[in-house]
Amino acid sequence: xxxxxxxxxxxxxxxxxxxxxxxxxxxxxxxxxxxxxxxxxxxxxxxxxxxxxxxxxxxxxxxxxxxxxxxxxxxxxxxxxxxxxxxxxxxxxxxxxxxxxxxxxxxxxxxxxxxxxxxxxxxxxxxxxxxxxxxxxxxxxxxxxxxxxxxxxxxxxxxxxxxxxxxxxxxxxxxxxxxxxxxxxxxxxxxxxxxxxxxxxxxxxxxxxxxxxxxxxxxxxxxxxxxxxxxxxxxxxxxxxxxxxxxxxxxxxxxxxxxxxxxxxxxxxxxxxxxxxxxxxx
Amino acid sequence: xxxxxxxxxxxxxxxxxxxxxxxxxxxxxxxxxxxxxxxxxxxxxxxxxxxxxxxxxxxxxxxxxxxxxxxxxxxxxxxxxxxxxxxxxxxxxxxxxxxxxxxxxxxxxxxxxxxxxxxxxxxxxxxxxxxxxxxxxxxxxxxxxxxxxxxxxxxxxxxxxxxxxxxxxxxxxxxxx
Lengths: 282, 177
Hints:
A: Enolase-like, domain 1, disordered N terminus, B: alpha+beta, DNA polymerase, domain 1, 2 domains, 31% helix
Protein backbone atom coordinates (compact mmCIF):
# COMPACT_ATOMS: atom_id res chain seq x y z
CA UNK A 1 0.00 0.00 0.00
CA UNK A 2 1.16 3.51 -0.50
CA UNK A 3 0.67 6.07 2.20
CA UNK A 4 0.96 9.81 2.15
CA UNK A 5 3.45 11.56 4.41
CA UNK A 6 3.20 15.37 4.64
CA UNK A 7 1.55 15.51 1.27
CA UNK A 8 4.18 13.36 -0.38
CA UNK A 9 3.57 9.92 -1.81
CA UNK A 10 5.80 7.04 -0.74
CA UNK A 11 5.84 3.95 -2.85
CA UNK A 12 6.86 0.40 -2.26
CA UNK A 13 8.53 -0.58 -5.52
CA UNK A 14 7.49 -3.97 -6.77
CA UNK A 15 10.08 -6.61 -7.55
CA UNK A 16 9.06 -8.47 -10.69
CA UNK A 17 10.03 -11.96 -11.78
CA UNK A 18 9.13 -13.47 -15.11
CA UNK A 19 10.16 -17.12 -15.08
CA UNK A 20 10.04 -19.16 -18.30
CA UNK A 21 9.57 -22.49 -16.55
CA UNK A 22 7.27 -23.84 -13.87
CA UNK A 23 10.22 -25.08 -11.79
CA UNK A 24 11.72 -21.56 -11.67
CA UNK A 25 8.39 -20.04 -10.68
CA UNK A 26 7.84 -22.52 -7.86
CA UNK A 27 11.41 -22.13 -6.62
CA UNK A 28 11.00 -18.35 -6.56
CA UNK A 29 7.81 -18.68 -4.57
CA UNK A 30 9.54 -21.00 -2.11
CA UNK A 31 12.50 -18.62 -1.76
CA UNK A 32 10.21 -15.70 -1.03
CA UNK A 33 8.28 -17.80 1.47
CA UNK A 34 4.88 -16.12 1.57
CA UNK A 35 5.97 -12.81 0.13
CA UNK A 36 5.43 -13.42 -3.59
CA UNK A 37 2.16 -13.22 -5.45
CA UNK A 38 1.63 -15.25 -8.61
CA UNK A 39 0.11 -13.21 -11.39
CA UNK A 40 -1.30 -15.06 -14.39
CA UNK A 41 -3.79 -12.98 -16.39
CA UNK A 42 -4.06 -10.38 -13.64
CA UNK A 43 -7.63 -9.39 -14.47
CA UNK A 44 -8.50 -9.44 -10.75
CA UNK A 45 -5.18 -8.32 -9.27
CA UNK A 46 -4.45 -5.43 -11.66
CA UNK A 47 -7.91 -3.93 -11.03
CA UNK A 48 -7.06 -3.81 -7.32
CA UNK A 49 -3.66 -2.31 -8.13
CA UNK A 50 -5.23 0.30 -10.45
CA UNK A 51 -7.54 1.35 -7.65
CA UNK A 52 -4.76 1.48 -5.06
CA UNK A 53 -6.14 -1.43 -3.04
CA UNK A 54 -3.20 -3.75 -3.59
CA UNK A 55 0.51 -3.05 -3.92
CA UNK A 56 2.37 -6.35 -4.14
CA UNK A 57 6.00 -6.33 -3.07
CA UNK A 58 6.98 -9.28 -5.26
CA UNK A 59 5.15 -10.39 -8.36
CA UNK A 60 5.89 -13.72 -10.02
CA UNK A 61 4.51 -13.44 -13.55
CA UNK A 62 3.32 -16.75 -14.97
CA UNK A 63 2.35 -15.37 -18.38
CA UNK A 64 5.53 -16.56 -20.09
CA UNK A 65 5.42 -20.18 -18.91
CA UNK A 66 4.49 -21.93 -22.14
CA UNK A 67 3.81 -25.35 -20.61
CA UNK A 68 0.92 -23.94 -18.57
CA UNK A 69 -1.07 -22.89 -21.65
CA UNK A 70 -1.64 -26.42 -22.94
CA UNK A 71 -4.91 -28.34 -23.26
CA UNK A 72 -4.52 -32.11 -23.56
CA UNK A 73 -6.93 -35.06 -23.62
CA UNK A 74 -5.72 -37.76 -21.23
CA UNK A 75 -7.43 -40.97 -20.03
CA UNK A 76 -10.96 -39.77 -20.74
CA UNK A 77 -10.19 -36.45 -19.05
CA UNK A 78 -9.28 -33.08 -20.47
CA UNK A 79 -6.21 -31.59 -18.85
CA UNK A 80 -6.16 -27.78 -18.76
CA UNK A 81 -2.92 -25.98 -17.87
CA UNK A 82 -3.03 -23.21 -15.27
CA UNK A 83 -2.60 -20.48 -17.92
CA UNK A 84 -5.51 -21.65 -20.08
CA UNK A 85 -7.60 -18.54 -20.77
CA UNK A 86 -11.36 -18.10 -20.96
CA UNK A 87 -10.93 -17.60 -24.72
CA UNK A 88 -9.42 -21.10 -24.91
CA UNK A 89 -12.16 -22.53 -22.66
CA UNK A 90 -14.81 -21.01 -24.93
CA UNK A 91 -13.61 -23.33 -27.71
CA UNK A 92 -13.81 -26.55 -25.62
CA UNK A 93 -16.48 -29.16 -26.46
CA UNK A 94 -17.78 -29.03 -22.86
CA UNK A 95 -20.94 -26.97 -22.94
CA UNK A 96 -21.21 -25.67 -19.39
CA UNK A 97 -17.56 -24.60 -19.36
CA UNK A 98 -17.48 -23.08 -22.85
CA UNK A 99 -20.68 -21.14 -22.22
CA UNK A 100 -19.55 -20.04 -18.78
CA UNK A 101 -16.28 -18.87 -20.35
CA UNK A 102 -18.17 -16.94 -23.04
CA UNK A 103 -20.22 -15.22 -20.33
CA UNK A 104 -17.07 -13.86 -18.65
CA UNK A 105 -16.17 -10.24 -19.48
CA UNK A 106 -15.74 -9.28 -23.12
CA UNK A 107 -13.34 -10.60 -25.79
CA UNK A 108 -10.39 -8.70 -24.28
CA UNK A 109 -10.83 -10.02 -20.75
CA UNK A 110 -11.35 -13.56 -22.03
CA UNK A 111 -7.98 -13.41 -23.80
CA UNK A 112 -6.25 -12.34 -20.57
CA UNK A 113 -8.08 -14.02 -17.68
CA UNK A 114 -7.29 -17.62 -16.78
CA UNK A 115 -9.44 -20.43 -15.43
CA UNK A 116 -6.95 -21.18 -12.65
CA UNK A 117 -6.96 -17.49 -11.70
CA UNK A 118 -10.74 -17.61 -11.45
CA UNK A 119 -10.38 -20.51 -8.99
CA UNK A 120 -7.66 -18.82 -6.94
CA UNK A 121 -9.62 -15.58 -6.63
CA UNK A 122 -12.48 -17.76 -5.36
CA UNK A 123 -15.18 -15.18 -5.91
CA UNK A 124 -18.62 -16.58 -5.06
CA UNK A 125 -19.64 -15.24 -8.49
CA UNK A 126 -16.86 -17.10 -10.34
CA UNK A 127 -18.46 -18.42 -13.52
CA UNK A 128 -15.53 -20.65 -14.41
CA UNK A 129 -15.38 -22.02 -10.85
CA UNK A 130 -19.08 -22.86 -10.94
CA UNK A 131 -18.90 -24.71 -14.26
CA UNK A 132 -15.90 -26.66 -12.97
CA UNK A 133 -17.74 -27.59 -9.75
CA UNK A 134 -20.54 -29.21 -11.77
CA UNK A 135 -17.90 -31.08 -13.75
CA UNK A 136 -16.35 -32.72 -10.65
CA UNK A 137 -13.09 -31.03 -11.66
CA UNK A 138 -9.87 -32.03 -9.97
CA UNK A 139 -6.86 -29.78 -9.43
CA UNK A 140 -3.15 -30.38 -9.55
CA UNK A 141 -1.46 -28.16 -6.96
CA UNK A 142 2.31 -27.84 -6.96
CA UNK A 143 5.03 -26.46 -4.75
CA UNK A 144 8.79 -26.50 -5.30
CA UNK A 145 8.88 -29.70 -3.27
CA UNK A 146 5.90 -31.67 -4.40
CA UNK A 147 2.48 -32.09 -5.90
CA UNK A 148 -0.98 -33.08 -4.73
CA UNK A 149 -4.34 -33.63 -6.35
CA UNK A 150 -7.44 -32.07 -4.83
CA UNK A 151 -11.09 -32.38 -5.77
CA UNK A 152 -12.60 -28.97 -6.48
CA UNK A 153 -15.44 -29.76 -4.06
CA UNK A 154 -12.79 -29.65 -1.30
CA UNK A 155 -11.16 -26.46 -2.59
CA UNK A 156 -13.53 -23.64 -1.65
CA UNK A 157 -13.56 -23.18 2.12
CA UNK A 158 -15.28 -19.85 2.80
CA UNK A 159 -15.73 -16.39 1.31
CA UNK A 160 -12.63 -15.98 -0.90
CA UNK A 161 -10.85 -18.65 1.15
CA UNK A 162 -9.48 -21.78 -0.48
CA UNK A 163 -7.48 -24.85 0.43
CA UNK A 164 -4.58 -23.48 -1.63
CA UNK A 165 -1.51 -23.34 0.63
CA UNK A 166 0.67 -20.21 0.61
CA UNK A 167 3.40 -21.75 -1.52
CA UNK A 168 1.14 -23.68 -3.90
CA UNK A 169 0.19 -22.98 -7.49
CA UNK A 170 -2.79 -24.37 -9.42
CA UNK A 171 -0.88 -25.99 -12.28
CA UNK A 172 -3.59 -28.13 -13.88
CA UNK A 173 -7.35 -28.57 -13.92
CA UNK A 174 -8.77 -31.95 -14.96
CA UNK A 175 -12.31 -32.25 -16.28
CA UNK A 176 -14.23 -35.22 -17.68
CA UNK A 177 -14.81 -35.19 -21.44
CA UNK A 178 -17.97 -37.30 -21.38
CA UNK A 179 -20.39 -35.43 -19.10
CA UNK A 180 -23.48 -33.96 -20.69
CA UNK A 181 -23.72 -30.39 -19.39
CA UNK A 182 -25.72 -27.14 -19.44
CA UNK A 183 -25.19 -23.53 -18.29
CA UNK A 184 -27.48 -20.60 -17.46
CA UNK A 185 -26.62 -17.18 -16.09
CA UNK A 186 -28.54 -14.09 -15.09
CA UNK A 187 -26.78 -10.74 -14.97
CA UNK A 188 -27.55 -7.09 -15.40
CA UNK A 189 -26.46 -6.76 -19.00
CA UNK A 190 -25.61 -9.10 -21.86
CA UNK A 191 -21.84 -8.97 -21.43
CA UNK A 192 -19.05 -7.83 -19.06
CA UNK A 193 -21.34 -9.05 -16.45
CA UNK A 194 -21.02 -10.42 -12.93
CA UNK A 195 -23.56 -13.12 -12.20
CA UNK A 196 -26.55 -12.17 -10.08
CA UNK A 197 -26.81 -15.94 -10.10
CA UNK A 198 -25.61 -18.66 -12.45
CA UNK A 199 -26.18 -22.41 -12.65
CA UNK A 200 -24.24 -25.28 -14.17
CA UNK A 201 -25.53 -28.84 -14.39
CA UNK A 202 -23.98 -32.07 -15.57
CA UNK A 203 -25.15 -35.61 -16.17
CA UNK A 204 -22.49 -38.29 -15.67
CA UNK A 205 -22.38 -41.42 -17.88
CA UNK A 206 -23.86 -43.23 -14.82
CA UNK A 207 -26.82 -40.80 -15.04
CA UNK A 208 -25.91 -39.04 -11.80
CA UNK A 209 -26.77 -35.35 -11.70
CA UNK A 210 -24.44 -32.54 -10.65
CA UNK A 211 -25.71 -29.02 -9.92
CA UNK A 212 -23.55 -26.00 -9.10
CA UNK A 213 -24.56 -22.40 -8.42
CA UNK A 214 -22.74 -19.06 -8.39
CA UNK A 215 -23.44 -15.94 -6.29
CA UNK A 216 -25.85 -17.54 -3.82
CA UNK A 217 -23.47 -18.46 -0.97
CA UNK A 218 -20.02 -17.37 0.31
CA UNK A 219 -18.45 -19.65 -2.31
CA UNK A 220 -19.67 -21.29 -5.50
CA UNK A 221 -21.66 -24.29 -4.23
CA UNK A 222 -22.94 -27.72 -5.18
CA UNK A 223 -26.59 -28.55 -4.39
CA UNK A 224 -26.10 -31.93 -2.77
CA UNK A 225 -29.69 -32.40 -1.62
CA UNK A 226 -31.16 -31.83 -5.07
CA UNK A 227 -28.45 -33.99 -6.64
CA UNK A 228 -29.20 -36.93 -4.32
CA UNK A 229 -32.90 -36.62 -4.96
CA UNK A 230 -32.48 -36.57 -8.74
CA UNK A 231 -30.11 -39.51 -8.69
CA UNK A 232 -32.95 -41.55 -7.21
CA UNK A 233 -35.83 -40.20 -9.28
CA UNK A 234 -34.10 -39.50 -12.58
CA UNK A 235 -34.81 -36.38 -14.63
CA UNK A 236 -38.44 -35.72 -15.49
CA UNK A 237 -40.78 -32.75 -15.24
CA UNK A 238 -41.98 -33.53 -11.72
CA UNK A 239 -38.61 -34.44 -10.26
CA UNK A 240 -37.05 -31.29 -11.72
CA UNK A 241 -39.75 -29.13 -10.10
CA UNK A 242 -39.19 -30.84 -6.76
CA UNK A 243 -35.41 -30.40 -7.15
CA UNK A 244 -35.81 -26.66 -7.69
CA UNK A 245 -37.65 -26.50 -4.36
CA UNK A 246 -34.78 -28.32 -2.67
CA UNK A 247 -32.35 -25.87 -4.26
CA UNK A 248 -34.22 -22.95 -2.68
CA UNK A 249 -33.46 -24.38 0.75
CA UNK A 250 -29.82 -25.09 -0.03
CA UNK A 251 -28.78 -21.63 -1.23
CA UNK A 252 -27.72 -18.97 1.26
CA UNK A 253 -27.60 -15.70 -0.66
CA UNK A 254 -27.18 -12.24 0.82
CA UNK A 255 -28.84 -9.02 -0.22
CA UNK A 256 -26.32 -6.80 -1.98
CA UNK A 257 -26.12 -4.13 -4.67
CA UNK A 258 -26.86 -6.71 -7.35
CA UNK A 259 -30.10 -8.14 -5.97
CA UNK A 260 -32.04 -9.04 -2.84
CA UNK A 261 -31.55 -12.39 -1.17
CA UNK A 262 -35.18 -13.31 -1.92
CA UNK A 263 -34.72 -12.61 -5.59
CA UNK A 264 -31.55 -14.69 -5.74
CA UNK A 265 -33.36 -17.63 -4.11
CA UNK A 266 -36.05 -17.36 -6.77
CA UNK A 267 -33.46 -16.97 -9.52
CA UNK A 268 -31.60 -20.07 -8.31
CA UNK A 269 -34.62 -22.28 -8.80
CA UNK A 270 -35.41 -20.77 -12.21
CA UNK A 271 -31.84 -21.22 -13.47
CA UNK A 272 -31.61 -24.76 -12.07
CA UNK A 273 -34.90 -25.65 -13.78
CA UNK A 274 -33.53 -24.32 -17.07
CA UNK A 275 -30.28 -26.26 -16.97
CA UNK A 276 -31.97 -29.48 -15.84
CA UNK A 277 -34.63 -29.24 -18.53
CA UNK A 278 -31.88 -28.81 -21.08
CA UNK A 279 -30.07 -31.89 -19.73
CA UNK A 280 -33.29 -33.89 -19.91
CA UNK A 281 -34.06 -32.44 -23.37
CA UNK A 282 -37.48 -31.36 -22.07
CA UNK B 1 -4.42 -12.17 -2.27
CA UNK B 2 -1.64 -11.60 0.16
CA UNK B 3 -1.23 -8.29 1.87
CA UNK B 4 2.30 -7.04 2.19
CA UNK B 5 3.79 -8.73 5.22
CA UNK B 6 7.07 -6.99 5.97
CA UNK B 7 6.94 -3.30 6.80
CA UNK B 8 9.62 -1.21 5.19
CA UNK B 9 10.20 2.17 6.71
CA UNK B 10 8.19 4.70 4.73
CA UNK B 11 11.32 6.81 4.51
CA UNK B 12 13.03 4.36 2.16
CA UNK B 13 11.83 5.78 -1.10
CA UNK B 14 12.66 3.07 -3.58
CA UNK B 15 10.71 4.05 -6.64
CA UNK B 16 13.65 5.47 -8.53
CA UNK B 17 15.86 2.50 -7.81
CA UNK B 18 17.01 1.39 -11.26
CA UNK B 19 17.43 -2.17 -9.97
CA UNK B 20 13.67 -2.48 -9.80
CA UNK B 21 12.88 -1.25 -13.28
CA UNK B 22 12.08 -3.99 -15.77
CA UNK B 23 14.09 -4.16 -19.02
CA UNK B 24 11.15 -4.36 -21.41
CA UNK B 25 11.55 -5.27 -25.04
CA UNK B 26 8.70 -5.94 -27.42
CA UNK B 27 7.41 -5.03 -30.85
CA UNK B 28 5.03 -2.09 -31.03
CA UNK B 29 3.27 -1.30 -34.29
CA UNK B 30 5.97 -3.14 -36.20
CA UNK B 31 8.94 -1.47 -34.47
CA UNK B 32 11.16 -2.89 -31.78
CA UNK B 33 10.89 -1.04 -28.47
CA UNK B 34 13.28 -1.23 -25.53
CA UNK B 35 12.64 0.61 -22.30
CA UNK B 36 13.05 0.32 -18.56
CA UNK B 37 9.62 0.30 -16.96
CA UNK B 38 8.15 0.28 -13.51
CA UNK B 39 6.88 -3.31 -13.37
CA UNK B 40 3.47 -2.37 -12.01
CA UNK B 41 2.84 0.10 -14.81
CA UNK B 42 0.01 -1.07 -17.03
CA UNK B 43 0.53 -1.39 -20.76
CA UNK B 44 -2.05 1.41 -21.12
CA UNK B 45 -0.03 3.82 -18.97
CA UNK B 46 3.21 2.77 -20.63
CA UNK B 47 2.09 3.53 -24.18
CA UNK B 48 0.30 6.75 -23.17
CA UNK B 49 2.69 8.25 -20.63
CA UNK B 50 6.11 6.91 -21.64
CA UNK B 51 5.70 6.55 -25.42
CA UNK B 52 3.16 9.38 -25.72
CA UNK B 53 0.92 7.29 -27.95
CA UNK B 54 -2.31 8.73 -26.63
CA UNK B 55 -4.69 7.12 -29.13
CA UNK B 56 -5.36 4.31 -26.66
CA UNK B 57 -7.77 5.60 -24.02
CA UNK B 58 -8.27 4.73 -20.38
CA UNK B 59 -11.56 5.16 -18.59
CA UNK B 60 -12.74 2.54 -16.11
CA UNK B 61 -9.35 0.85 -15.43
CA UNK B 62 -11.17 -2.38 -14.59
CA UNK B 63 -12.02 -3.96 -17.93
CA UNK B 64 -15.60 -2.74 -18.14
CA UNK B 65 -15.47 -0.26 -21.01
CA UNK B 66 -13.02 -1.49 -23.67
CA UNK B 67 -11.68 1.97 -24.51
CA UNK B 68 -8.12 0.70 -23.90
CA UNK B 69 -8.20 -2.25 -26.33
CA UNK B 70 -4.96 -3.12 -28.08
CA UNK B 71 -3.96 -6.29 -29.94
CA UNK B 72 -1.31 -8.52 -28.39
CA UNK B 73 -0.09 -11.16 -30.85
CA UNK B 74 -3.29 -10.43 -32.78
CA UNK B 75 -5.61 -10.95 -29.82
CA UNK B 76 -7.71 -8.14 -28.34
CA UNK B 77 -6.81 -7.23 -24.77
CA UNK B 78 -7.75 -4.54 -22.27
CA UNK B 79 -4.41 -2.76 -21.91
CA UNK B 80 -5.49 -1.40 -18.50
CA UNK B 81 -5.37 -4.97 -17.14
CA UNK B 82 -2.03 -6.00 -18.61
CA UNK B 83 1.20 -5.03 -16.88
CA UNK B 84 3.78 -3.66 -19.31
CA UNK B 85 6.36 -6.41 -18.55
CA UNK B 86 3.78 -9.04 -19.50
CA UNK B 87 4.11 -8.12 -23.20
CA UNK B 88 7.81 -9.00 -23.13
CA UNK B 89 8.78 -10.38 -26.60
CA UNK B 90 5.19 -10.03 -27.82
CA UNK B 91 3.81 -8.03 -30.75
CA UNK B 92 1.52 -5.18 -29.73
CA UNK B 93 -0.65 -3.19 -32.11
CA UNK B 94 -2.26 0.07 -30.95
CA UNK B 95 -4.60 2.36 -32.86
CA UNK B 96 -1.55 4.31 -34.07
CA UNK B 97 -0.36 1.21 -35.94
CA UNK B 98 -3.63 0.65 -37.76
CA UNK B 99 -3.52 3.47 -40.28
CA UNK B 100 -0.79 3.82 -42.91
CA UNK B 101 0.62 7.25 -42.19
CA UNK B 102 -2.27 9.68 -42.51
CA UNK B 103 -4.28 7.22 -44.54
CA UNK B 104 -6.98 5.52 -42.48
CA UNK B 105 -7.53 1.81 -42.96
CA UNK B 106 -10.84 0.42 -44.21
CA UNK B 107 -12.50 0.20 -40.79
CA UNK B 108 -11.41 3.71 -39.82
CA UNK B 109 -12.59 5.09 -43.18
CA UNK B 110 -16.02 3.49 -42.78
CA UNK B 111 -16.31 4.86 -39.23
CA UNK B 112 -15.81 8.34 -40.71
CA UNK B 113 -18.18 7.81 -43.62
CA UNK B 114 -20.98 6.32 -41.52
CA UNK B 115 -20.80 8.89 -38.74
CA UNK B 116 -19.86 6.17 -36.25
CA UNK B 117 -17.78 8.68 -34.27
CA UNK B 118 -19.34 11.27 -32.01
CA UNK B 119 -17.25 12.22 -28.98
CA UNK B 120 -14.67 9.71 -30.22
CA UNK B 121 -13.44 8.46 -26.85
CA UNK B 122 -14.51 4.84 -27.42
CA UNK B 123 -13.51 4.82 -31.09
CA UNK B 124 -9.90 3.53 -30.84
CA UNK B 125 -11.02 0.66 -28.60
CA UNK B 126 -13.91 -0.20 -30.88
CA UNK B 127 -11.67 -0.16 -33.94
CA UNK B 128 -9.15 -2.47 -32.26
CA UNK B 129 -11.95 -4.87 -31.28
CA UNK B 130 -13.22 -4.74 -34.86
CA UNK B 131 -9.74 -5.33 -36.31
CA UNK B 132 -9.46 -8.47 -34.16
CA UNK B 133 -12.95 -9.66 -35.07
CA UNK B 134 -12.62 -9.15 -38.84
CA UNK B 135 -9.14 -10.71 -38.93
CA UNK B 136 -10.59 -13.87 -37.43
CA UNK B 137 -14.00 -13.80 -39.09
CA UNK B 138 -14.23 -11.77 -42.34
CA UNK B 139 -18.00 -12.25 -42.74
CA UNK B 140 -19.58 -11.91 -39.27
CA UNK B 141 -23.32 -12.15 -38.80
CA UNK B 142 -25.06 -9.36 -36.88
CA UNK B 143 -24.87 -11.55 -33.73
CA UNK B 144 -21.17 -12.16 -34.27
CA UNK B 145 -20.59 -8.41 -34.68
CA UNK B 146 -22.43 -7.79 -31.41
CA UNK B 147 -20.46 -10.52 -29.64
CA UNK B 148 -17.18 -9.15 -30.99
CA UNK B 149 -17.99 -5.68 -29.64
CA UNK B 150 -19.62 -6.72 -26.37
CA UNK B 151 -16.59 -5.58 -24.37
CA UNK B 152 -16.81 -2.00 -25.67
CA UNK B 153 -19.10 0.72 -24.39
CA UNK B 154 -20.13 3.75 -26.47
CA UNK B 155 -22.24 6.37 -24.72
CA UNK B 156 -23.04 8.52 -27.77
CA UNK B 157 -24.00 6.66 -30.89
CA UNK B 158 -26.45 3.99 -29.79
CA UNK B 159 -24.23 1.59 -31.78
CA UNK B 160 -26.29 1.53 -34.97
CA UNK B 161 -23.87 3.68 -36.96
CA UNK B 162 -20.98 1.61 -35.59
CA UNK B 163 -22.58 -1.62 -36.75
CA UNK B 164 -23.29 -0.09 -40.17
CA UNK B 165 -19.67 1.06 -40.46
CA UNK B 166 -18.43 -2.41 -39.60
CA UNK B 167 -20.79 -4.09 -42.03
CA UNK B 168 -19.59 -1.77 -44.79
CA UNK B 169 -15.97 -2.38 -43.81
CA UNK B 170 -16.49 -6.13 -43.97
CA UNK B 171 -18.15 -5.75 -47.39
CA UNK B 172 -15.34 -3.54 -48.68
CA UNK B 173 -12.67 -5.91 -47.38
CA UNK B 174 -14.54 -8.85 -48.93
CA UNK B 175 -14.56 -7.13 -52.32
CA UNK B 176 -10.83 -6.54 -52.17
CA UNK B 177 -10.20 -10.18 -51.33
